[in-house]
Automatic annotation (TrEMBL):
This is 6-phosphogluconate dehydrogenase, decarboxylating. Substrate binds at residues 104, 130-132, 187-188, 192, 259, 286, 445, 451. PROSITE patterns: 6PGD. It catalyses: 6-phospho-D-gluconate + NADP(+) = D-ribulose 5-phosphate + CO2 + NADPH. Keywords: Gluconate utilization, NADP, Oxidoreductase, Pentose shunt. One of its GO terms (biological process) is pentose-phosphate shunt. Its EC number is 1.1.1.44. NADP(+) binds at residues 11-16, 34-36, 76-78, 104. Homodimer. Catalyzes the oxidative decarboxylation of 6-phosphogluconate to ribulose 5-phosphate and CO(2), with concomitant reduction of NADP to NADPH. It comes from the Eukaryota. InterPro entries: 6-PGluconate_DH-like_C_sf, 6PGD_dom2, 6PGDH_C, 6PGDH_Gnd/GntZ, 6PGDH_NADP-bd, 6PGdom_BS, NAD(P)-bd_dom_sf, Pgluconate_DH. The active site is at residues 184, 191.
Length: 481
């Protein structure tokens, strides 16, 4: 009798194939299935040749080849495709069986699916999978959440195939419902922010007239210090890359795409009232980049400053750029963890923030030395409300903030757009302000909309003023602005 599979995986794009081969390498028998069945045989005859991977010709065939309780992982396009497969799978499964969604699904969809499948006795997991094709093959960062009873069923598989950081698996249970996909969404939002910050540093270097080789050397140096990370490393490689026509980078069209997770992070921040300003600017920067034709037209009509980008000491200013990038990166993660904390409060998730930082230490796109500092911050204080209040990060920003201010101010004077660097600095200055001008804002809202205000020392008591003498004395209850 043929050996039964430990897990099935549906979806044989490159990520799915690599994850199957990773599982096979760690001793697990995987049953592969794809909507286009020809792909299964092609995979078995090529990439999976000589492995223990088995194939299925239908969903029923796949279910028949699984050990009980059955574990089926989906790596298909987020949205309706996931729901379609769930509808087809449920009649074939038994209570206690498990469906895992490893795609970039919206966390609300995962929460809904958990609730619907629980009524039918089927366990459900929504797991973030980060690391791209390389991570899937050799060790991704995995962020599973959903029905907690499912975790013992997949723990051995997930912690075997994931990346390891200092011997620890970059995978642990995140929380109930959509917690795993929410954390992955924030991860992707931080990824957007990190990439935009690096692009702004690159743009400043270009403005200073640096060659690609000089820029690559700078990123090489930065990667040996506190900015040591996957994204800094690949930026160095991209800057160094040449083909038969020379450096490739300058020939790439400057319009950026997006798949939605950065936007979802910004939308979630607005929904929960968390000032995730840097990620928002990173998303809008991609939107602005997409207006290529308009920008080309505007470049011939809209003038910037006459001052050229010059500095008396380029080496010194490069240090300022590095420090500004570092401070802004601290703010990016600060905002991301603020958003996760608010979501945890909203959904009653018990998120382990230090554990999340550890999950991101290896395998994923935002992996970096820096995440070890975040893990240590939450180890020192598991109730830390804001990373900027941790002694280590507070001292680092204090040490580097003069550079940060130099870079943002010079960029403004030179006409070099730095939306993420400047948004991060504005957030820092706002967060450290005992008083903000929101008192005037509240007065304005009360003036035109009778929205009321609180007085200092009388918090919780709401007042309305008839500012013009011709308005009413009754506060608004329906009009919102």
């Amino acid at each position: 009798m043929a050996e039964k599979a430990d897990i099935a995986l549906i979806g044989l794009a490159v990520m799915g194939q690599n994850l199957i081969l990773n599982m096979n390498d760690h001793g697990f028998v995987v049953c592969a299935f794809n909507r286009t069945v020809d792909k299964v045989q092609n995979f078995l005859s090529n990439e999976a040749k000589g492995t223990k991977v088995i194939g299925a010709t239908s969903l029923q065939d796949m279910v028949n080849k699984l050990k009980k309780p059955r574990k089926v992982m989906l790596l298909v396009k987020a949205g309706s495709a996931v729901d379609d497969f769930i509808r087809q799978l449920v009649p074939l499964l038994s209570p206690g069986d498990l469906i895992i969604d490893g795609g970039n699904s919206e966390y609300q969809d995962t929460t809904r699916r958990c609730e619907e499948l629980e009524k039918q006795g089927i366990l459900y997991v929504g797991s973030g999978v980060s690391g791209g094709e390389e991570g899937a093959r050799h060790g991704p960062s995995l962020m599973p959440g959903g029905h907690e009873k499912a975790w013992p069923l997949i723990k051995d598989i997930f912690q075997a195939i994931c990346a390891k950081a200092e011997g620890e698996p970059c995978c642990d249970w995140v929380g109930d419902g959509g917690a795993g996909h929410f954390v992955k969404m924030v991860h992707n939002g931080i990824e957007y922010g990190d990439m935009q910050l690096i692009c702004e540093a690159y743009d400043l270097m270009k403005a200073l007239g640096m060659s690609q080789k000089e820029m690559a050397d700078a990123f090489e140096e930065w990667n040996r210090g506190e900015l040591d990370s996957f994204l800094i490393e690949i930026t160095r490689d991209i800057l160094n890359f040449k083909d038969d026509k020379g450096y490739l980078l300058e020939r790439i069209r400057d319009t950026a795409g997006q798949k939605g997770t950065g936007k979802w992070t910004a939308v979630a921040a607005l929904n929960y009232g968390v000032p995730v300003t840097l990620i928002g600017e990173a998303v809008f920067s991609r939107c602005l980049s997409a207006l290529k034709e308009e920008r080309v037209h505007a470049s011939h009509h809209l003038k910037g400053p006459a001052v050229a980008a010059t500095t008396a000491d380029r080496a010194e200013f490069l240090k300022h750029i590095k420090n500004a990038l570092y401070c802004s990166k601290i703010v990016s993660y600060t905002q991301g963890f603020m958003l996760m904390r608010e979501a945890a409060r909203e959904f009653k998730w018990r998120l382990n923030y230090g554990g999340i930082a550890l999950m991101w230490r290896g395998g994923c796109i935002i992996r970096s030395r820096f995440l070890g500092n975040i893990k240590e911050a939450f180890t020192r204080n598991s109730n830390l409300t804001n990373l900027l209040l941790d002694d280590f990060f507070r001292k680092e920003v204090t040490r580097c903030q003069d550079s940060w201010r130099q870079v943002v101010s010079k960029a403004v004077l030179w006409g070099v757009p730095v939306p993420a660097l400047s948004a991060a600095l504005a957030f820092y200055d706002g967060y450290r302000s005992e008083r903000l001008p929101a008192n005037l804002l509240q007065a304005q809202r009360d003036y035109f909309g009778a929205h009321t205000y609180e007085l200092l020392g009388q918090e919780g008591k709401f007042h309305h003023t008839n500012w013009t003498g011709t308005g009413g004395n009754v506060s608004a209850s329906t009009y919102q602005a």
